[in-house]
Every structure is written in C-alpha cells, then in structure tokens.
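Quick check before the chapter quiz. The format below is the same one you will see on the exam, so make sure you can read both the input and the output lines.
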Amino acid sequence: MKDTITDLLIKIPMFAGLDADELPIIEKYIKLFEIEQGETLFKEGDKGEYVCFVVDGRLEVTKKTITGENFVLNTLARGQSVGELSIIDKRPRSATVRAKTKATLFTLEGNDFEVITQEYAVIGMKVLKGLSLLLSKKLRQTSSRLVSYMATAG
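Here is the expected output.
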C-alpha cells in the first residue's frame, strides 16, 4: 500500500478536523488488516468494541427483519466507516457487516479512543466533533430514507 495510515486518516470525515501534526498521534492507535470477500467482519448482536474504516474494497451492512430475512442497509466504500456507536455506548452491534469484495480496513478500538480523549484532550475533542458530525449526517440520511419509504408504503 503506497499511502501511509496518516495519508488515509486525512480522508476520513471523523478525523477531518485534525492538523497534520495531530494525525500521527491517532495513527499510533490504528490497526490495519484485510478481510476476504464474503467474510463477516461482525454480526448483529456481537459485542461492539471498535469502529472500522474502509481503506479499500466494499462492505455490506445488513439487518435482520422481523421475519428473519437480511435487509441490506448500506454498502460502504473507501473512506466510510461503520461501528461508530460502539466506541461511544459499548452496546451490541446493531447490524451485520460482511465483505462484499476483498477489503483493507483499519480500526480504532474503544479503549484506545478513551485514551486519546483523556491523554490528548484537544485531539479528543476534535475527533468527538468529527464523530458527532458524522453521526448527525447518518441520522439525517436515515430520516430521509425512512420518510421516502413511508411515502411509498402509503
């Protein structure tokens, strides 16, 4: 991979507010790995311990319906993230995530996120702001999709 983790972090909305000298601090806590096509990253109900960022490839996010079928909520590509809530609320995963293609990912574990917010308060506040903006954007998108769905359902 020709890009460094710092080069990739710059492109992630959650870290967009960080200065160039702050990114290497975050990089110390990032773990990089690959997942094969069809492999499950995590399942709905699993313990949530990290947020995951797509470096390359595509992930599919699904949720079980009340009838037990898997409903595709989203497909994630480079620069997108999944599992943000787990580093905040430590609750079980709300969806299943599988690799739609072979993918390169990096993670930030909840415990490391807490270290960052405690030991690097200014950086932690910037990351929290980025996380808040990201979650706000996702909530607005979900609300719009829900309204569209309700309008077509009658």
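If your answer matched, good. The mean pLDDT is 90.
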